[in-house]
Amino acid sequence: MRKRMAITVTTMLLMLVAVLAQKSKQKPAQEQAAQEQAAQEQAAQEPAKPVLGQAQTQEEYNDYMKISQVTLPVDEPGKAELVNQFKSKYNRTPGDPELGVFVRVRTAEEFLSKYPESGLAPFVHQQSALFYQQLNDFSGLSEHGEKALEKLPENPLIMTILASAYAEKQDHDKCLEKAEKAIQLLNNMVKPAALTDEQWTQNKANLLSTNFASLGMVHLSRAQAGAGGDEQKKTDLQKAVDNFQQALANNKMDDISYYRMGISFTLLNKGDEAIQALAKAVAVNGVVFEQARDLLEKIYKKTHQDSLTGLDEIISKAKQELQPAQQQS
Predict the structure, then answer these.
(1) In which element (H, E) is residue 148 found?
(2) Burial grade of 231 (CB within 10 A; 0-12, 13-18, 19 or more)
(3) Who's near 108: CB < 8 A, 6+ residues apart?
(4) Is the residue at 113 inside a domain?
(5) CA-to-CA distance for 127 and 145, rounded, in angstroms?
(6) Which of 96, 152, 172, 260 has fewest C-beta within 10 Å?
(7) What's the sign of the alpha-carbon dihedral 108, 185, 263, 296?
(8) How large a percentage of the chain has pLDDT more than 90?
(9) Are 125 and 145 in contact (CB under 8 A)?
(10) Which domain covers residue 104, as residue numbers?
């Protein structure tokens, strides 16, 4: 039916063109020439429509390049004023790297204010989302991330960033939507020509790992809330474990996923599995080292007659198992 309808519509369009062409031939030559000239003049007066990924003027392109090229003020008064602006917004004192990000995101937003319809605007929104992620500013991240997706709806990078942020903010539905879509896109995505096979494999694995970790966090959070009863809690905990395992299959040095998987196993009353997961979280020696070590010791004592004897050997074994992945990272 659809194929037949398409043929019918095409035939009608061709007939319409033929009729219009015939009518134009019947017009006096002078009238036709005047109409053509008027159409050309109108087209010349209308501003060119923005093309996705392109600047319309050299000035616009130069302003776009400033986002990555802008640097901190050299003079102390100028830098001091910038620090005060940062402290006023975030209530903390920044170091130079964080202040540099602050300058770049302000430059990006100046570009968006000046060129709101630019073909480069979606990419500037994406840059801004990344900047705000570095500043731990969820409001700015989500605002610019969602705007980027309006024009770049199949961008797995920005979906991944948003999914992670929504997971942290416990906006479960939005996290699930973004993470599941990003995973689907990544699994079907063709390697970009600009990347080597090794670069693409690594980047894809990192993005997949982040999305599976976000899904795991959602299910763990739901289980801890316990809204659906014991059976639902058990289901959510198992889903959390499954997703953390997927995250770790793509990034074996993800200490946060080891830690959260350890919590999930603990809530499932699987002490041995919890110990193994937490030992690897400790072995990575990352941002959750202290929390992982504390929980590991509590569980180990509970299952080993209040003794820590043998725990160091388990951690040492975990380090050995992670050594190949550590060397590759």
Answers:
(1) helix 138-151
(2) exposed
(3) 67, 124, 127, 128, 131
(4) yes
(5) 9
(6) 96
(7) negative
(8) 79
(9) yes
(10) 56-153
What's the whole-model pTM score? Answer: 0.81
- For residue 42, being part of any structural domain is answered with no
Q: What are the C-alpha distances in Å from 269 to residues 145, 262, 275, 308, 311?
A: 39, 11, 11, 19, 19
pLDDT for 25 beyond 50? no
Are residues 280 and 288 in contact, defined by beta-carbon separation less than 8 angstroms? no
The number of distinct structural domains making up the chain is 1
- Within 8 A by CB and 6+ apart from 60, the residues are 115, 118, 120
Residue-wise pLDDT tens digits, 231-261: 999 999 999 999 999 999 999 999 999 999 9
Please check whether residue 235 lies inside any domain of the structure.
no
- Nearest alpha carbon to residue 178 among 205, 217, 139: 217
In a domain, 216, yes or no: no
- Residue predicted with more confidence, 42 or 145: 145
